[in-house]
Amino acid sequence: MFKNIILASKSKVRKQILDKNNINSEVCASNVDEDAVKKSLLKNGANPEIISKNLAELKANKISQKKPNEIVLGADSVIDLNGEIISKPQNRDEAFDILKKLNGKKHYLISSVCISRDGMMIWNYTDKAVLTMKNMREKDLENYLKQIKDKDLYAYNVYQIEGLGKTLFSKIEGDEDTIMGLPIKKIKEYLVTLK
Predict the structure, then answer these.
(1) What Cα–Cα distance (Å) separates residue 180 from each residue in 1, 62, 109, 165, 194?
(2) Number of domains present in the structure of the chain
(3) What is the DSSP string of 7-41?
(4) What is the pLDDT along the chain (195 residues), one digit of tens a residue?
(5) Structural domain range at position 150
(6) Taking a C-beta distance cutoff of 8 angstroms, is the pair 121, 60 a contact?
(7) CATH number of the domain that 127 lies in?
(8) How far apart are CA 115 and CA 64, in angstroms?
(9) Tell me, what DSSP letter sits at residue 158?
(10) pTM
(11) Cα gap 87→102, rounded to integer Å
(12) How far apart are CA 127 and CA 37, in angstroms?
């Protein structure tokens, strides 16, 4: 199994998942303009799953072109609420609006991963989790947000499933690593096959 990879993401959680699974990784952020890519794909009728896959591939390929012969892992997660993509909040007001939008509803969290070598995708995988948010009073949503630090709020969308975010949900169906942004079991299965 490949023990050294490049992670084309500055996500601390993704890095922690790799570390926990004894996969050495060097972080090399791709700095892809995700919003511009999303807008372009949406204009062309792409669904949330296609958008997630495309972003993961773009990130991996971009870094892979600069790092010959290296194994590069790109990843992307999107929230899909009835076909609408919910992006990360830019401020606390947006975060509150997102929580109100998800309140009492079921949504999908889609995580895509892509492995590239020499600027080309050699493997990809997409997994989906289903999360049902409790029906909460606005005051409870405000109290939840007060407990979340800025860096966590902007890095993980509006909830961290491994932390306080778990309390927002009445039902969670799916792999926790997928929800955290990296379906590690499938990644490990693929890495084992690499020479």
Answers:
(1) 23, 23, 9, 11, 25
(2) 1
(3) E----HHHHHHHHHTT-EEEE------HHHHHHHH
(4) 566 899 998 888 899 999 999 999 999 999 988 889 999 999 999 999 999 999 999 999 999 999 999 999 999 999 999 989 988 888 889 999 999 999 999 999 999 999 999 999 999 999 999 999 999 999 999 999 998 888 777 666 677 777 788 899 999 999 989 998 899 999 999 999 986
(5) 4-193
(6) yes
(7) 3.90.950.10
(8) 9
(9) B
(10) 0.90
(11) 12
(12) 21
- Asked if 100 and 62 touch (Cβ cutoff 8 Å), the reply is no
The pairing of beta strand 106-117 with beta strand 24-27: unpaired
What is the C-alpha end-to-end distance of the chain, expressed in Å? Answer: 7
CA atoms lying within 13 Å on the CB side of residue 177: 17
- Give the residue numbers annotated as catalytic, written as ranges: 76
| Residue 97 · residue 88 · CB < 8 Å | no
What is the SS3 assignment for 151?
Answer: helix
At what angle are helices 92-102 and 138-146 packed, to 10 degrees? 140
H runs (alpha helix) in 7-137 = 12-20, 34-43, 48-66, 92-102
Q: Return the residue matching tokens 């600069």.
A: 66
> What span, in angstroms and rounded, lies between the C-alpha atoms of 67 and 36?
25
Residues with Cβ within 8 Å of residue 149, at least 6 apart in sequence: none
